[in-house]
Amino acid sequence: MVEDKTVLSRCFNGFNVFLLIVITLLCIYPVWYTFVISLSDKAAVSAGQVFFWPKDLTLGAYSLIIEDAKFLNSFLVSIQRVVLGTIATFVVVVLMAYPLSKTSREFGPRNIIMWLLIFAMLFNGGLVPWYMTMQTLGMTNNIWGLVLGGGLPVFNVILVMNFFRNLPKELEESAIMDGAGPWRILFDIYLPLSKPVLATILVFTIVMHWNEFFQALVLMTNNDLYPLQTYIRSVTVEIDPSKIDAESAQRVASSSNQTLNAAKIFISMLPLLVIYPFFQRYFVKGITLGSVKG
After folding, report:
1. How far apart are the first and last CA of the chain?
2. How far apart are alpha carbons 195 and 94 in whole angstroms?
3. Which three-class secondary structure string do you get for 180-238?
4. What is the pTM (predicted TM-score) of this model?
5. 282 lies in some domain
């Protein structure tokens, strides 16, 4: 009987390992396939001959994107946007989530503010009113339009708020008895214990600022202020053959829209693939603990 259980246990574990390997390969293959497409020749891609390895290896798509004087500038704009946007999001989210984590008796306007946040999260004023507001505030053609244009990330506020509410109240009560004020409690108790949820919103914020491209199309009339995603879109979608030299024209000829789009996607996700493993151990814990209470 014991041997049967051991055999069944081994079969079950073996099946789980096999299933996890299959799921892992299914997750990795789209990334690998995108990379392979970006390195393949136009004719091979158009003929559907590319599956696991590059066909007629060429770097034409990457050369077309990278060998541009504006590429580095757009990359630096994206880095600046991510850094400033992450700092701004952290400050706003933490300072709003802390008082909202209290009860309505401790913080009177708590319920009213929560209803306003939920309403703002569910309903949008529209593109034209948003643009008029940004123009009135002087946030067109500058980096602050990209940093602050997304407004307050309400979902992140709710995550951090619920995480704060799950922390033991005894810690705050002990700190108050020792004479600590709200700022001391926030910075010395709440934030050090909130690494999982802070890492979670860090990932969310970086992904949002890095991948977003539409705001720059609306707010920026100067192409030098385009972030990386908007710049790559302009390169891959708006190529004017009359304005490129013979060498560039040859690269365009050897690269289909599919290879260019693959190169664009791979370049876009590469920084996130590098950053994500450092925060993975916090990610699940931050999501689960930050979504227990309403």
Report:
1. 48
2. 12
3. CCHHHHHHHHHCHHHHHHHHHHHHHHHHHHHHCCHHHHHHCCCHHHCCHHHHHHHHHHC
4. 0.73
5. yes
Nearest to 233 by CA among 260, 196, 210, 215: 260
Tell me the DSSP string of 162-186: HHHHHS-HHHHHHHHHTT--HHHHI
Q: Total domain count for the chain? A: 1
* In a domain? residue 5: no
Q: Report whether 203 contacts 283 (CB < 8 A).
A: yes
Cβ atoms of 198 and 206 within 8 Å: the answer is no
- Are the CB atoms for 255 and 66 separated by under 8 Å? no
**In this structure, is residue 227 part of a structural domain?**
yes
Phi, psi of 212 (to 5 degrees): -70, 135
Domain of 95, in residue numbers: 65-289
CATH number, domain with residue 98: 1.10.3720.10
Query: Do the domain assignments include residue 49?
Result: no
Residue 97 to residue 124: CA distance in whole angstroms:
22
What are 231-265's pLDDT values in tens digits?
Answer: 877 766 655 545 445 555 555 554 446 777 787 77
Question: CA-to-CA distance for 190 and 287, rounded, in angstroms?
Answer: 17
